[in-house]
Structures are given as structure tokens and as C-alpha cells.
Amino acid sequence: MVEPDLGSDPLRDRILDAAVAEAEADGGWYDLRLHSVAQRLEVPLEAVLARFRDADAIADAWFARALRAMLREPEPGFLSLPPSERLHLVLMRWFDAQASHRQVVGSMIGAKLHPSHPHHWVPMIFSLSRLIHWALEAARLDARGLPRQAEEVGLTLLFLRVLRLWLQDASPDQQRSRDVLRRNLAWLDRLPRRPVHSGDGGT
User: Fold this and answer.
1) Is the pLDDT assigned to residue 202 strictly greater than 60?
2) 8 Å CB contact between 189 and 84
3) What is the mean pLDDT of residues 12-22?
4) How far is CA 193 from CA 112, 148, 190, in A?
5) What backbone torsions phi and psi does residue 153 show, to the nearest 5 degrees?
6) CA nearest 201: which of 73, 92, 81?
7) What are the structural domains of the chain?
8) What is d(CA 22, CA 34) in angstroms, rounded to the nearest whole number?
9) Can you spell out the DSSP letters for 39-85?
């Protein structure tokens, strides 16, 4: 669910937005047809291929956009917050960046997990691992050894739990998801860690 940003390309961004709009209008990501995306944008189909190898690559670009939103520079005072609150803020950026297209996000993930797409399963594991590592980086969490492993494993399991809830969360401003995430991050504050230096940003 995480891929690198390949640089600024206005048409690439338009293709991504058009694909999401097409999926919302026509039954979800699994049934997305790239020729319909090209027609919506009035560009040759070859222009889509030049930027994305297939619909799965477009989904990866969508998740990369959410990752960039998660990694934006923190607000002043960020480092004075407890670890649990820093991580809560970071992860909710990821969810908030996609909230208005939650159903499409669910169908993107469903398409990746489809039985006919086993070639997507292993890359998803690595993408999830990278997402968790970047979340820990963005929250400026720097536990070592076993505490770090506890962070990685615990956060992975919690993220998957909250993701499942978030995909169905109809509460105002995704409040149910926010509350579940916050309640289940308190253990982070009890892990041993090095002092956070103000020079690390977000003072």
C-alpha cells in the first residue's frame, strides 16, 4: 500500500483522479477499465500506459499520495506530545487523506486481495511494512531492540484492525476510528526510548 513518488506530472495526477472518479461511478476498482479513464480525460489510451502499467499501479499511486499526506511536516509543538498522540496524528493523516473516497479505497484493497491476483499478495505485505515504518518515522519514534519490534508488530496489527473499521465507519469525521486508534495506542507511552531532541523538527 505504499509506493514511491515518481515526480510531478500533471497528466499522471489527472489520470489518478479520473480513475478514482470512474471507479466511484461504475462499480468499484475491480471493474475499472482504463479505456474509460482515457475517454473521460479525452487522451489516448497510450498516454495512460505511458504512466501506469495497469490499474494496480494506479492504486499504488493513490496510496503513495496518502503516504505523502502522512509525512507532511508536523505542526509546532508536535515533539512535546506523548508518543501515542504523535502516532495517532500521523496515522489519521493517512486515513483523512482518503476519507472522501473510502469505498474506492476498500475496493482497491479488495482487488489486490482477489483470488485471481496472487501476484499482488506478497507486494502488499511489503507495502504494509513500509507504511508502518514510515508512520514510526513521521511520529519520531525511536525505540531500539525489542521495544522497536513491539512497536512494529503491535502497530501493524492495530492498523489492520482500524483499517477494517474505517472502511465501514459512517460516524461523523470518522470518530469511531479515531477513538479506537487512540485507545489502543496508549501502550506506546510505556516503552523505553531515547529523549526526543528539539532539533529533530516540530518543536
Assistant:
1) no
2) yes
3) 97
4) 36, 9, 9
5) -70, -45
6) 73
7) 10-191 (1.10.357.10)
8) 9
9) HHHT--HHHHHTT-SSHHHHHHHHHHHHHHHHTSPPPTTGGGS-HHH
